[in-house]
Design brief:
With 251 residues, this protein is of the alpha/beta class. It has seven helices and nine strands. The strands form two sheets. The protein has a seven-stranded mixed beta sheet with strand order 5-4-3-6-7-9-8. A two-stranded antiparallel sheet has the order 1-2. Strand 6, helix 5 and strand 7 form a beta-alpha-beta unit.
Length: 251
């Protein structure tokens, strides 16, 4: 690809950030963007996730979710977010009473599920998405458990966010310039292997490999194997990983 081609691609990306995620040649609409109403503006959907049978954990975990693409692609429900939500719902007793931080929350779906399960949660994203996250906290009556904060990858972690016991991240690998920023934020948040990191992503482009090249400088990872739905979502190129921070000085 020539420099001119790259400039054209960058300009097209700026005009339509979702263009790489669509498959316009597929008559069934089976592109990467999940199937939702044609005009995703100010819609409300309901998602339900079977949960564990632990005491005081609702089964199923039901989330009413406002979705709106107006503030950006983070304002819709993405497939890896639903996969991670389903997984933590099945293991809800492990989150109860923990400090949980979700990165790149978008609508806040995964963090809201963690809140329903009894965790103290911070859902975070860039400023344009804060309103929809606050709305979703309110309509699910989770203000006592779920807090909303702006967190820009690569920048200092806000001081009012407590040290997390668990970090959740879903569908955060899609914008190549943000790859090193996301790795930096993960490294800043995770000092050692005492912090659990669940990272769910959908493979989309060859460029995703660059993210994992950067990530392996700071973390090792393994596939989560105790998920009965793994065979199903693996066919959709979705992976659920558990990240572990490397000891300082190792690469």
């Amino acid at each position: 690809m020539t420099n001119i081609d790259l400039v054209v691609e960058e300009r097209l990306d700026a005009l339509d950030p979702l263009r790489h995620f669509r498959n316009d040649d597929d008559p069934e609409g089976g592109g990467i963007v999940p199937v939702q109403p044609p005009s995703i503006q100010d819609r409300v959907i309901e998602l339900s996730f079977p949960s564990c049978s632990a005491e005081n954990v609702p089964n199923p975990a039901v989330i009413t979710l406002a979705v709106d693409a107006s503030p950006g692609c983070g304002g819709i429900a993405w497939p890896a977010g639903e996969v991670l939500s389903a997984y933590i719902a099945q293991h809800g007793s492990l989150l109860k009473g923990k400090n949980v931080l979700e990165l790149g929350s978008g609508t806040g779906l995964v963090g809201l599920v963690a809140g329903v399960l009894g965790a103290a949660v911070w859902i975070t994203d860039q400023a344009p998405l804060l309103d929809i996250m606050r709305r979703n906290v309110e309509i699910n009556n989770l203000a006592l458990r779920v807090s909303v904060a702006e967190l820009n990858w690569g920048e200092a972690i806000p001081q009012d966010i407590p040290r997390p016991d668990v970090i959740l991240a879903a569908d955060c690998v899609y914008f190549e310039p943000a790859f090193p920023l996301l790795v930096k934020t993960l490294a800043d948040l995770v000092a050692d292997d005492s912090t659990e990191v669940l990272f769910c992503y959908k493979k989309r482009r060859k460029a995703d490999k660059r993210f994992f090249t950067l990530l392996k400088k700071e973390f090792t990872w393994t596939e989560v194997e105790d998920d009965p739905q793994r065979a199903v979502y693996s066919r959709e190129a979705i992976s659920l990983l558990r990240l572990v921070r490397k000891p300082s000085g190792r690469s």
